[in-house]
Amino acid sequence: MKTIIQEILRAQLRGGTITEYSSVRSNVYRMSYHQYNNGHYQRNTGYNNNNNNNYQQRNNGYGYQNGYQDHNNRSNNYGQRDTYPSRERGATRTHHINDNIVRSTNQLYMGDLDLSWTEDTIKEIWKTLGEESIRVKMMMNNIMNNNNTRFSGGNTTTNSDNTKNQGYCFIEFSTNEQAANALLKNGMNIPIFPQRRLKLNWGSGGNSNNNNSNSNNNNYNNAKPTDESNMSSNDTNYSVFVGDLAPNVTESQLYELFNDKYPSMIERTRVMIDRVTGVSKGYGFVKFINAAIQSRAMIELQGAYLNGRAIKINSTGQRQQSQPQYSTDPKSIGNGNDNKYPNKNNKHHNKINKLSLFMLPVQQLPRMNHMTDPNNTTLYITKISPYVNELELEEYFKPFGSYYDKLRIFAPEEDDGDTNNNRPSSKSYYQQGIIQYVNRYDAERAMVALHQYAIDDIPLQLSWGLPVDDDKLKIKQQDIQLQAQPSYPNDIYSYV
Amino acid sequence: MTDLFLTHQDALAGLDPAFIKENPEFVEAYGNINLKDIGALNTVLKSVDQLLKKYATPNDKIKNTVEIIFRQILSRYPLLFGYWKRFTAIEYQFHGLETSLKTLENATESFPHSVDLWCDYLKVLIVNYPKESELIKRKIDKAKELVGWQFYSHPFWDLILDYYLKTETDVIQLYHELISIPLHQYAKYITAFKKLLTERKLTEDIKKVDAMGKQNQIMVNQIWRFESLIKQNYFNLTPLPPSEVENWINYTQFLTKTYCDKPQLIRSVFQRSLIPCCFVEKIWVRYLTWNQSIDTTKDLSKLDDLIQLYEKGCRTLPKTTHEFRWMFIDRLEKSYASNEKAGKVLIFTSFCKCIKNMIEIWPYRQDQIKSMETYLRMLKISKYYSSLDTPSKQLISQQTTYSKYLETCINNFISDRVDHSIVLEDLINERNLAVVVVELIRTTWLVLKKTLQTRKYFNHFSKHPSLRTSVDFWAIYYNFEKSTKNFVRLNSFVSGLGTDLLLPTSFINDIINDYKIFYLLNSNITEYQTGKIGPTSSHNSESAVILDPILEIGFKINNPKWTRKISNNGRINKIDAYKNSQYKENGHPGIVSDTPQITNSIIQRRSKSFKNILPGLPTFRNLEKINQIGNYRDYYSEDILNSKQ
Questions:
Q1: How far apart are CA A203 and CA A39, in angstroms?
Q2: Taking CA atoms, which of A11, A331, B152, B220 is between 20 and 30 Å from B630?
Q3: Which residues form a coiled coil (chain B) (predicted)?
Q4: 496-535 of B, contacting A, C-beta below 8 A
Q5: Which ipTM did the prediction report?
């Protein structure tokens, strides 16, 4: 503090300006910020102190980078791992499928299918190609769409046909050689459907790799390299389902989000695109290189914002199958790469839980209905004065923009012969109406301007509505027959 | 009025409590009576039957109850001929022949186009009163006119032929009439007629009959195309399928084109179609359009018939139908001028009745306004008629009396002293009052040119609540003030739109767009400067915000509720504004604005002033503010999050 005063004095002597003062003060701020952060860091990382001094010392000067702690922590772990180069060799961490590993399976991916093809069609095709004993798993278009109806909005194509496939399938051959042979036919014309070509690749189902084996080994807390057979036997896919994506999220954006948090831990990302419309279906998958990252990501990135929308992370079906092997040993749950420090596993597990306290809250989006639909343009008007007809009411709503059809009023339900229609208290006194604008903007303006706008001293009430079928009106038309016939004046006016 | 009384009367009122206890089914059936449901009506009928079986000789109270029930149903639906028949039978059981005949006669009057009812009536008449040949003849003639041309009227013709044979009247004439009518059983009569002619050896006539028969056959064949499609030729409460209506329309269209020389046939088909389709406006309109087209004579009785027919349609058609009623009004208005005195009286009377009816049955303001405007137009033509050659003095006096008349009516209505014998006063209500007021103002301002009086009217009426929502009234007010170029009033009127005067958005938009141009063209700087103050008459200055006619009124377009926020509310108070830290920070919270200062600075002090004593240690001001944390004002949560609570 003394130095500050000296500096101020010096500045005053120089006839210093405010900016100089402020620069001085900002220095002060920065210093205290350092201190504050350091202290904070100390507190926060307390549980790390005793087990990773090296790390702490390295990071001391950069306490304000506390947010990247995970990152640093992991890179540190890499460092640790690098002392075992023999084991890590071959497991290059890139985000595309590692061919060497995948080829150990006998499953092929077959894409570019006609949407109407079934499993039998595929079998037929392979029969003509000389492969008889295959099993086909066709990806059908049903389950995911249910999760996803809200994004499709008025676009019915995504919902309409559950019978159609998603355009790809998996083919399982009896041996790996057969699969490899079949893969050579990639790009060939399909004999039965000459206008199409075979699109083949290794299936992703058999994508067991070294990392996987790592995590297996963790359970036994030994760092011995495992043999090939062990690797291939464990057939696990570390993917998560990512839902609630904004429609404009691309695969690379999704990749960046996860890769920033877990660098080099993402094998690939995928955003599902509707084949018909070319628009994102609003969900995708992220594939990690190991189960630990997968489970961490499910907690830590749950509800992270991507293009203004909180994402939702869920496990895929396969993930849950592999869950039990972790639960057998509670100590081992957590980061598989920490196998060098078996005694820390538990701590790390705690850390995940601690982090989960700070995770972004998952915003519960309201259920999609006419009130929450951002594209709804239909206004439902209640409390319309009984003396107003459609033409007159249109004068109120016309200026805001063009609308479909015309404004419609439903006359109140008439109680037969009852005269209580004239009391404002009875429900049937008021009329209701519906108007569907072409543009949302117009509808909103009309709503803002006319809500509670009084006609005949009765304030209108507006809310979002749904277009009404003509059926309701048709019934009304039929009722006309049954209406009481009007009385007609019999008396003749005396003065005429 | 009697109808209304009848429908709301409780038929069970006069019954003994013991009787009600003994017959719960009957009471329940009557309690469930629903005039919209034919099933419920049939249940009532059944329970009445059971009741009469149970009490072979019912007492007067029961008789009365049953009669009331039947009258209630039949006054509402006179076209249910089965009910009439049943009612006649019951009346016969109760009171004997005389009353039942009376009932049948009533039936033929209420439902004049029913062959069934006429046959029943004539049969009873012929059997029981054979001596009243004069009456029978009269009735037969009437029935012939009403139902004789119907396609399935052969029972009726058989009945007459039978009667004629019995009374030994010559039937040749009747046969001649008969064979030209396209009947379902036309061949039967031709054969019989030919037989009769051969008996009388009138061979020449046979050839004629043959020729007519051929012609008739062609006609029947043509008609059969439509007749065969008619599935329901009786009245029922369940809605008619659209194909039936379509068929009737095609049928009448065909006849009016092809057989326009047979008005009786066309009329009878129209009448028949109006039994099942009596609630179908289209057919009524067609019927009357056709009726008007064939009848161009200015005979008073014809006019009366036409009006009767129109009024019948107005009584029958449901409230929601507009076209037919306007067609009636239109017809009356058009034929008014061309008629003689008696016809004029007739037309005006029925015009008043129809307008009154329209005002009563149509709740919507637009219909009310249209009806009232039509009435005033007619009133002017009928009572205050002026032609080109009317002397101007008389014209003025006429218009003055007209405006006087209007004013009296309006004032009587407002002060609630309505004289129902005066048509206009009887017609005025809250919704169409504006039309009369506007008419009065228009006459005073534009015809009588009394500007002062007009202003008085505006001041007087603008306070009336039902006129505050009237577009017509404010439109003429705006025009009036425009003509006087009273910008103070115009400004206050335009400012009040949407906040004080809740008028339709499109109307407000139009007024504002028009006023913007009008103001720029006609105002000047003095007006502009004084115009913002507002009229002296408005007492509370808070509610009446006068908008700037150039800058601000445009905000009201498509946002009628827009109003300027009252000044100094939510704005920075100008006197203290510079002291505010936010003002000093100018959007950079935390920046040092109160600089630390040394209060006992030695700079620029002469060394002499130290008097060889050490100067004191520096003392500071504002030093503590250096470390002050910036005060962030979170407008977002202030304005949005907190205001929601």
A1: 51
A2: A11
A3: none
A4: 498, 502, 504-507, 509
A5: 0.70
